[in-house]
Each structure stands twice: as C-alpha cells, then as structure tokens.
Amino acid sequence: MATYIMLHRYTQKGIENVKQSPARLEAVRKSFKAIGAELKQFYLVAGQYDIVTISEAPNLETISKCALDLASKGNVTTETLCAFTEDEYRKIIAALP
Q1: CA angle 18-3-17, nearest 5°?
Q2: What is the pLDDT of residues 45-79, one digit of tens each?
Q3: CATH code at 28?
C-alpha cells in the first residue's frame, strides 16, 4: 500500500462545528475503510494547516476518492501528497542513471 499525507484546513462550516470534529474523524475512518484505504495517523497542528493525516491506500485513485468524499462534507479542504518511505527513497535514488 502506498502512503499519503493529507493536509487539511477547516472551512467556516468546520470550525463553527469544531466540537463535533472527533465524531467526524471516526466517520472519516469508516469512510476511508469502505473506500479501500486506511487512515493511520491524525495530528492537530498549528501553522498553515489545521490537521495532518497519514493514510495508506492501494493507489492514487483510491485516495482521491477518499479526498473527494471528505471534501464533499464541507468541513475541511484537503491537499494530498504521495509519500515514499526511506527504503522506497533509497530504491528510487539507486535507480537513477
């Protein structure tokens, strides 16, 4: 499974209902699982973004479905990054000409 980092920002709707966000997080975990991915880690962060999550999915299509499903609820915006482990990084670098 590939690793994906998602950067989230609360929307106005999301921040107005922030007290419900723990329950929404559990709903997101279930939704990701139903789509074929797994939300592995969640972080509330300070700075440019409000939340950072780390998920695993079999491919970009699956994580894109997760991101679209999440964004369609209107509580957060998302930015998705594909992440490579250190072993994958070393393999990529070793394959360079």
Answers
A1: 5
A2: 999 999 999 999 999 999 999 999 999 999 999 99
A3: 3.30.70.920
